[in-house]
Amino acid sequence: MAGAEGFDQQNLAQMLQDLGSLLATPANEPINWTGAVQVAQRALNKSDTQPLTPADSARAESAMATAQLWLSEATTLPAHSAGVDVWTASDWVEGTIDEWRELVNPIAARAGETLGEILPRIAEIAGDDPEGDREKVSQSFAPFASMMKPLSAAMFGMQVGNGLASVASEVLCSSDIGVPLTQGHTPALVLPAIDKFGSQLGDAGADALIFIALREAAHQRLFAAAPWLASQFKTSIVEYSRTIGIDMDRLREIVQSVELGPGGDMQSMQEMLGSGLMNEMAPKKDTPALNRLETMLALIEGWVEQVVTQATSERLPSAPALSETVRRRRAAGGPAEKTFMTLMGLQLKAARLRQANQYWSLVFEKGGAAQRDSRWVHPDLLPNTEDLGDPNNYIQSQ
């Protein structure tokens, strides 16, 4: 019951329960994933958890069957699964959590290590101050050292849980972030979100389901045919996580702005946390790993867009309008953009996507679908970041 001034004791109790769950992280995990899922599920709206009907499932299955039939005429990559999972937003959280664990754990683990490195650095900075006392600061903050790992796990767990809820409320399928988040290559459609998406598009909205089914099935075919893709994607994330470190200049500013008192105390620690200390675990903004990820995501999206365009060219008059809506959604900050910006500060640049589209158009003009699709056999057959900057020159040099 809310208090006289609108204070909701029930919400506070739930928040404290979530925090307690997140702090109880297994020793071998940088995040308590059970707690993160609970946070995500509680943050979803009731409409995101309503069970689907048999009629809903039949509608999605029919759309996916049609999508697979059309795609088989547009790409040489075969369908891996004849079925489709039909989800609510809540189902999406549960159905993708294993993949999220693989994607996020390396980043969370490195962030936890970095947070543990902060206190010794604080003592080092304090010792450099003529009025500082490194030994006293080290001794006073020693009790906090054991808190850093669970604090990092709780912080990331809360961030991941809320992030999953935010993405789940608008995601349309398992590959809406740019890569499939399912295991086994079975397509998955978030039907309520697709219906909501279509309801905002006027006449073209009636074709939203088949269009999203096409995009999802194309992603799944690609990742089934090129198993190295998922592996390289995750390897790049691990490489990215190694760049997370402490911005010493910013940390020095924060420490020098806080009075550490005689040896420091809880108030001093709270002041530093409140000054943005937790945000100073900064990754490098321009790294080979991030460039590879951005290029890979652009190539995937460009290929999917071309294949779907060819599959719908004589069948779905609304396809150009739907494609443009997807592009605008991405430019405005769709699920993929939210995910990679939150996790890695990675922005999917429109220019890179245009270059990828140009590249795939040139490849198709030169050798048709067979040559285009065969580029996915091995990563060495695809352009790197520099190559993609000038697709014409790259194609001519082949």
Features of the shown structure:
398 residues, mainly alpha, two-stranded parallel ribbon, two-stranded antiparallel sheet, 16 helices, 66% helix, disordered N terminus
Helix content: 55-70%
Rg measurement, Å: 24 Å
The largest sheet, given as strand count, sense and whether it forms a barrel, is: 2 strands, parallel
Morphology call: globular
Which strand order spans the largest sheet, edge to edge or round the barrel?
Answer: 1-2
Average pLDDT, all residues: 81
Total number of helices:
16
User: β content, as a range?
Assistant: under 5%
User: What is the number of strand segments?
Assistant: 4
The total number of structural domains is 1
Distance between the termini: 69 Å
What is the chain-wise order of helices and strands?
A: HHHEHHEHHHEHHEHHHHHH
Structural class: mainly alpha
Unreliable residue runs:
1-9, 261-266, 272-278
